[in-house]
Recover the amino acids of this structure.
């Protein structure tokens, strides 16, 4: 059994940078992450790149459940990253808002603890 | 990998090798019989996808269906049914003694029961020049079997001009027709003497050939290909008689061969396919059935038959599932009588049984009308139908299939098999079909199944199609499915309204939706969802259409929610495959100046524009602009947007007109510029491309535009509407002939506004005009038969007044991060890790 990666939380920026119902892309810890601010206030985070042809998911249109890739309209579940239109899935990451900041938990290097990286 | 403990949950391991239509359908049948309680299911698929409908690849190639639409089971289906799917993994060997399969990724998976459903692959004859040494196929040679094959073909066709398709069977003709839609000149080369020789006799093949040639596809029969010419680029193919057909791509559609090598090397009996018994058990090389190994689909040889059609495969899957799950341990497959009903390159073809009489006493009734594209033949033996062939008219196909399948009695007057002799209307036909009659051949759905579904409470055609999958294969039976549903519902049919909804998430047709939006004063997309969507649930796929509609209704008084817009409309540029954008400045009527050109050149230099392209709408396209650079590019251009990205009024193409052209009858350039100035940027249900041309030579292609104006003798102007010359080709209908440019301008505005108010979302004028009928449109727009002309004029005037160049947002972004990159094209804003 190999060591398992432990999620590390990262503060990406102010929630107000993301207009309601839209997404924005962030580069963090070697990953490209698309963060979506849904109309009900929830934030969701997925890999930023569509596995089909590399489309920018942050430019996609969303509703409470899914984002639609702007290039070929592949549909991804915002909670799980599962593709609902037959292409590959994307990773989803736990995301939340704290003090007006978007916080996303990404798998850290194996062995790091979840809290060491987060100073609040 | 250690074998899983058998007793962990009491279930056995079922491994399915092959994730095509046969493998996935078999698993569905197994699950339907409660198989999930008996088996842990693992599937291996060579292609890196879920399961898709291979039959529909020809529609994808022809651009009639999106890739998404042909998927039968998405990745989520496998998850929901707890199926472990190894997509993109090939199984290299089956170890019958250890009961494990070995995949080429090195893994070993144990099985208690195994299903081999490896399907078939394209047969490629060994023709010199087709393969390059050590590198597989020549880059310009394609097979037509998988989604990847289809994608590769589409990509290559975009930059190539002439294709030779080797093989004039069903697949070859579908490939030819599909390639044609990409602007490729196609020649079909076929070895036998007539097309589709497996299904048609020579006379039927000839009628089909005329139909195919009428589509602009060249056909060469009795022709053997002996060489593919050209090194890096293909230059032609050589035929055995010495002829060379010039071409720059080659598609091989010369039939299929069962994929049986894994079975063969693993000790199973393989002839033309994997040999199975009547319970679908694979035989070992001693001829003994292996009780734990089954095979199904195109890889299988059953009673000396190998099937290349989908219906037999469904029957096999049902028997296999009955036996494996123990639902019916004595179930047997006795082979299929194959009757096929196809649309070949748009031409209806049906065939069953023999194609020609074989005995002196066989009755043979033939009606052959090549000029009408019609061919019908039936062969009757001992008062039973043993063969039928239909080309061009399938009206009688259902009773013929029934007579063929069931041996039902035939009319004394044999000609009545081919034509209604004025007695039996079509509705009676549906009622009289026995329940067992197969309605959908692709998915093997009978009339009885459809009727049972309706009796079970499903009361719409779409609902029945979803539940039974009838009509979800090639689609050619949709009309018959609808007829059976109507018959079964006996008047209680719920009209399938979702088909008429303006957008999928709001249950109203456009006219009702517009009325409700006005009545309830709904001015934002979120307000529409809250008030009108079931449960107030928003729907991503509906947002763009609603945004457009609200702007049409409210003009500048709309509450602009940017998430309601597609990315192109958020940043006023057209997104490209790499996530960059294209910038097309306005160039009214296609007229420019030295100053504009100089500025464009400077911008291209300064921003290192990777590609500058002249568009079909007589403008200049700057491609490869990064999102974050858009505001600066617009500022440096200092020209208004050309709207080359929106569902909106795009451009007016013009010819030189009367100023310089020695043939010019009217000042087309001035009129084109006037039209573009007035109607620039108007949102519409789909894009609007216009043209004005100065004489009937029609250099600006006005006959094939959404609205095209042609100057004719006597200073008059003809207005054509509903033309198209893209994926769809249609000559526009003459709306009116008028005396002055002012009248052209007024009627254009009124036409556009009527289109904006009544067309469905994404319905181009080439569909909308024939749907409403040119006479009706002329009555409303020209003759004001409904008394709404003044209202239409006022509405379009309000939209004209609300115009604002969107590229002005460069100075005053509409929202935070509007022009921030969304892709790893460059370094993204780096977030410090704290």
């Amino acid at each position: 059994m190999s060591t398992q990666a432990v999620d590390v939380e990262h503060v990406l920026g102010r929630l107000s940078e993301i207009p309601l119902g839209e997404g924005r892309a962030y580069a963090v810890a070697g990953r490209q992450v698309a963060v979506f601010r849904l109309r009900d206030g929830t934030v969701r985070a997925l890999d930023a790149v569509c596995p089909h042809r590399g489309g920018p998911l942050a430019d996609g249109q969303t509703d409470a459940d899914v984002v639609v890739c702007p290039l070929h309209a592949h549909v991804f579940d915002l909670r799980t990253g599962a593709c609902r239109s037959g292409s590959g899935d994307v990773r989803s990451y736990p995301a939340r808002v704290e003090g007006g900041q978007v916080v996303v938990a990404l798998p850290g290097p194996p062995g790091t603890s979840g809290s060491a990286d987060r100073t609040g | 990998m250690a074998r899983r403990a058998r007793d962990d949950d009491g279930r056995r391991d079922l491994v399915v090798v092959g994730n095509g239509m046969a493998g996935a359908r078999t698993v569905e049948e197994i699950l339907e019989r409660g198989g999930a309680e008996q088996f842990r299911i693992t599937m291996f698929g060579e292609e890196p996808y879920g399961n898709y409908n291979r039959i529909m690849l020809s529609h994808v190639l022809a651009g009639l269906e999106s890739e998404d639409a042909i998927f039968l089971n998405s990745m989520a289906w496998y998850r929901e049914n707890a199926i472990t799917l190894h997509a993109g993994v090939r199984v290299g060997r089956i170890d019958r003694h250890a009961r494990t399969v070995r995949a080429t990724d090195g893994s070993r998976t144990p099985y208690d029961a195994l299903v081999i459903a490896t399907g078939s692959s394209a047969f490629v004859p060994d023709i010199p020049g087709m393969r390059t040494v050590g590198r597989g196929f020549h880059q310009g040679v394609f097979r037509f079997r998988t989604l990847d094959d289809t994608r590769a073909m589409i990509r290559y066709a975009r930059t190539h001009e002439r294709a030779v398709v080797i093989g004039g069977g069903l697949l070859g003709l579908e490939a030819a027709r599909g390639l044609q839609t990409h602007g490729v000149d196609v020649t079909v080369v076929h070895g036998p003497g007539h097309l589709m020789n497996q299904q048609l006799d020579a006379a039927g093949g000839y009628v089909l050939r005329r139909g195919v040639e009428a589509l602009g596809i060249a056909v060469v029969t009795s022709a053997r290909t002996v060489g593919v010419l050209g090194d890096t680029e293909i230059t032609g193919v050589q035929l055995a008689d010495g002829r060379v057909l010039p071409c720059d791509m080659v598609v091989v559609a010369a039939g299929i061969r069962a994929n049986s090598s894994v079975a063969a090397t693993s000790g199973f009996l393989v002839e033309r396919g994997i040999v199975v018994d009547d319970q679908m058990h694979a035989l070992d090389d001693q001829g003994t059935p292996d009780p734990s190994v089954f095979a199904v689909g195109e890889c299988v040889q059953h009673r000396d038959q190998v099937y290349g059609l989908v219906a037999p495969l469904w029957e096999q899957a049902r028997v296999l599932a009955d036996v494996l799950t123990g639902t019916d341990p004595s179930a047997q497959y006795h082979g299929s009588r194959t009757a096929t009903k196809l649309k070949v390159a748009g031409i209806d073809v049906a065939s069953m049984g023999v194609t020609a009489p074989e005995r002196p006493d066989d009755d043979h009734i033939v009606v052959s009308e090549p000029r009408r594209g019609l061919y019908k033949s039936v062969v009757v033996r001992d008062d039973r139908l043993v063969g039928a062939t239909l080309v061009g008219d399938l009206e009688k196909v259902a009773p013929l299939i029934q007579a063929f399948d069931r041996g039902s009695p035939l009319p004394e007057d044999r000609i009545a098999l081919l034509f209604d002799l004025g007695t039996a209307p079509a509705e009676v036909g549906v009622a009289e079909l026995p329940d067992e009659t197969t309605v959908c051949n692709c998915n093997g759905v009978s009339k009885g199944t459809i009727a049972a579904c309706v009796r079970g409470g499903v009361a719409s055609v779409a609902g029945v199609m979803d539940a039974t999958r009838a009509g979800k294969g090639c689609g050619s039976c949709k009309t018959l499915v609808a007829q059976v549903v109507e018959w079964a519902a006996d008047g209680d049919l719920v009209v399938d309204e979702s088909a008429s909804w303006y957008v999928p998430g709001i249950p109203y047709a456009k006219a009702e939706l517009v009325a409700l939006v006005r009545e309830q004063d709904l001015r934002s997309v979120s307000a529409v969802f809250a008030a009108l969507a079931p449960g107030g649930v928003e729907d991503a796929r509906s947002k763009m259409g609603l945004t457009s509609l609200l702007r049409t209704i409210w003009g500048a008084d709309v509450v602009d929610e940017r998430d309601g817009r597609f990315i192109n409309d958020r940043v006023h540029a057209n997104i490209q495959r790499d996530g960059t954008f294209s910038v097309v400045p306005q160039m009214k009527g296609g007229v420019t100046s030295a100053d504009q050109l100089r500025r464009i050149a400077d911008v291209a230099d300064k921003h290192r524009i990777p590609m500058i392209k002249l568009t079909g709408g007589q403008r200049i396209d700057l491609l490869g602009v990064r999102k974050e650079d858009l505001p600066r590019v617009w500022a440096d251009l200092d020209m208004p947007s050309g709207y080359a990205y929106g569902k909106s009024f795009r451009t007016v193409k013009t010819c030189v007109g009367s100023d310089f052209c020695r043939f010019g009858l009217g000042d087309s350039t001035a009129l084109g510029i006037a039209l573009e100035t007035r109607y620039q940027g108007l949102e519409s249900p789909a894009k609007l491309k216009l043209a004005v041309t100065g004489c009937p030579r029609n250099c600006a292609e006005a006959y094939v535009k959404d609205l095209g104006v042609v100057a004719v003798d006597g200073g008059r102007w003809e207005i054509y509407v509903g033309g198209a010359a893209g994926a769809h080709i249609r000559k526009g209908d003459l709306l009116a002939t008028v005396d002055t440019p002012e009248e052209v301008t007024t009627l254009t505005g009124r036409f556009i506004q009527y289109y904006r108010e009544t067309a469905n979302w994404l319905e181009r004028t080439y569909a909308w005009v024939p749907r409403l009928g040119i006479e009706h449109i002329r009555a409303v727009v020209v003759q004001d038969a409904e008394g709404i002309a003044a209202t239409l004029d006022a509405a379009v005037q309000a939209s004209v007044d609300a115009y604002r160049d969107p590229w002005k947002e460069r100075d005053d972004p509409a929202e935070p991060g509007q022009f921030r990159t969304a892709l790893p094209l460059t370094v993204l804003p780096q977030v410090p890790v704290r």
Q: What stands out?
A: Chain A has one domain: 8-107. The longest strand of chain A covers residues 7-14. Chain A touches chain B through 56 residues (CB under 8 Å). Confidence is low (pLDDT under 50) at residues 111-120 of chain A.
